[in-house]
Amino acid sequence: KSWVVDIYPGAKIVKKLSTTDSSKKSGVKYSYAFKVEEVLNDENLIIEKVKQKGKKKQIQYNAENYNINFYSSFFQKKFYFLYENNEEDKIFEGNYKFTKTNLKIVGDEDSDTVKVVLQPGEVALRVLVPVDPDHE
């Protein structure tokens, strides 16, 4: 049996193991893995982290590279997709279709497509989060 435990700042969690049959010898073997992650709520800080840590793809259209970038990253149990138009005189328009399993697009929960339209110098952040069956 295993547990996934999220411990947020200031929280404490205790997991207790008890014997199911006190007449039998008991013992335990265990392993663990963990990570410590900063909680980011400010969109500008999230954008900065996605740009620093995310996978970057430059947009290419008709065999020409444009100064338009697409970043993808996963942290805080969310998938982040950042679109950035650094062109001075071009509008970027993209349609992205996602094949989702137990995920929803924040702000458009029923859709599987994201449409992005960016004027020169604009950025757009789209987020996919796990579906919480207890709140659906």
Tell me about the largest β-sheet.
5 strands, antiparallel
Structural class by SSE content: mainly beta
Q: Based on DSSP secondary structure assignment, what is the total number of beta strands?
A: 7
Beta-strand percent range: 35-45%
- How are the strands of the largest sheet arranged? 1-2-3-7-5
Q: What is the CATH domain class of the domain at 43-135?
A: Mainly Beta
Summed up, the helix count is 1
Order of helices and strands: HEEEEEEE
Characterize the overall form.
elongated
What portion of residues is helical? Answer: under 10%
How confident is the prediction overall: mean pLDDT? 88
Q: Identify the CATH architecture of the domain at 43-135.
A: Sandwich
CATH T-level topology of the domain at 43-135: Immunoglobulin-like
End-to-end CA span: 26 Å
Overall radius of gyration:
21 Å
- Uncertain regions: pLDDT < 50 for 5+ in a row? none
Tell me what you see in this structure.
The chain has a domain at 43-135: Immunoglobulin-like (Sandwich), CATH 2.60.40. The model has no long low-confidence stretch (mean pLDDT 88). The chain has 136 residues and is mainly beta. The strands form 2 sheets. A 5-stranded antiparallel sheet has the order 1-2-3-7-5, covered by helices on one side. A two-stranded antiparallel ribbon has the order 4-6. Helix content is 8%, strand content 37%. It is elongated.
